[in-house]
Amino acid sequence: MGKKNKKFEWTRKHLLGLRDLTAEEIGFILDTAEGFEQVSTRSIKKAPTLRGRVVVNLFFEDSTRTRVSFGLAANRLSADVIDFSKTSSSVSKGETLLDTARNLEAMGIDIVVIRHCAGGAPKLLSKNINASVINAGDGFNEHPTQALLDVYTIRKERGSLKGLKIGIAGDIAHSRVARSDIWAMTKLGAEVTLIGPPTLMPGKVEELPVKVCYKLDDVIEELDVINMLRIQFERMGKAQFPSVREYSHFFGLTVERMKRAKDDIIVMHPGPINRGLEIESQVADGANSVILKQVSNGLAVRMAVLFLVNQAAMKRQKK
């Protein structure tokens, strides 16, 4: 598929995060995704890769893009898909995560795609069930497939991330996307700067392989890529900045601020967008925006991840 290194062999049965992946492994996923892009252009948008396999979307938090994308990716690979809803399941009666997963596994599932409010939930599952586990976002920890589609999008636009200056702006403290982005982008050779007020920076930020800037205006002119993060009001116990108006004034990506940016700067956002807060609509929908391309690219990336973890699991079964 695509430009994959034929000497490289994918061996990971699970995808729990990007912190422990090598640059070669990340690149291999991106190369594999290239091979799956053309499936979506066919008149019959199907490949038999996961025929006979069962994928369950085990989402304990709300999601639109990630959940639909994983479901569509599994369908495109001809898998059977089960969509799990917390509110209509036995979880609402007090059933634990492990009991839920073990009962689903007893029905013959092969891959679990899990989103959970608790960091480490996917890792816990991976140690207690036989199915492959894919992290679709866990607490403040990681969101690996979002970061993979982010770097995949940048690579398609620029050919490589090596030497690019990338800004990640906004609510870094509560963002699992930011953490996965940091690992993926720096391992692929980019220079990453976190931008936001001190109250929205993560603890021990000095231990991360990044630069930190508290004023967007100080770095906007030098950035090749900027990824604007949503302010996650639902995760904040109290106000992290004086007012929405003040935050937008200092950290919002406005039309006026874009006049100082490079002409070819790439504008990204993981969604959902708070229009008028972290980014103005004219910018989100403008010529520099690749926000919808990120969504489209997410399908190929998630097809690649499903394919690779299944492939590794099948090889282990044969040994």
Quick recap of the structure?
The protein is of the alpha/beta class and 319 residues long. The protein has helices at residues 23-37, 65-76, 97-106, 121-126, 144-158, 176-187, 244-251, 255-258, 281-284, 291-318; strands spanning 54-59, 80-85, 111-116, 132-138, 165-169, 191-195, 211-213, 225-228, 266-268.
Describe the structure.
With 319 residues, the chain is an alpha/beta fold. It folds into two domains: 3-143 and 295-314, Rossmann fold (3-Layer(aba) Sandwich); 144-294, Aspartate/ornithine carbamoyltransferase (Rossmann fold). It has helices at 23-37, 65-76, 97-106, 121-126, 144-158, 176-187, 244-251, 255-258, 281-284, 291-318; strands at 54-59, 80-85, 111-116, 132-138, 165-169, 191-195, 211-213, 225-228, 266-268. Strand 3 (111-116), helix 4 and strand 4 (132-138) form a beta-alpha-beta unit. Helix 5 (144-158) crosses helix 6 (176-187). The protein is globular, with a radius of gyration of 20 Å. The mean pLDDT is 92.
Attribute tags:
globular; alpha/beta; four-stranded parallel β-sheet; 319 residues; Rossmann fold
> What distance lies between the first and last C-alpha atoms, to the nearest angstrom?
24 Å
Largest sheet: 5 strands, parallel
| Total individual domains | 2
Series of H and E elements: HEHEHEHEHEHEEEHHEHH
Reconstruct the topology from this structure.
Blueprint: H1 23-37, E1 54-59, H2 65-76, E2 80-85, H3 97-106, E3 111-116, H4 121-126, E4 132-138, H5 144-158, E5 165-169, H6 176-187, E6 191-195, E7 211-213, E8 225-228, H7 244-251, H8 255-258, E9 266-268, H9 281-284, H10 291-318
Parallel strand pairs: 1-2, 1-3, 3-4, 5-6, 5-8, 6-7, 8-9
Helix pairs in contact: 1-5, 1-10, 2-10, 5-6, 5-10
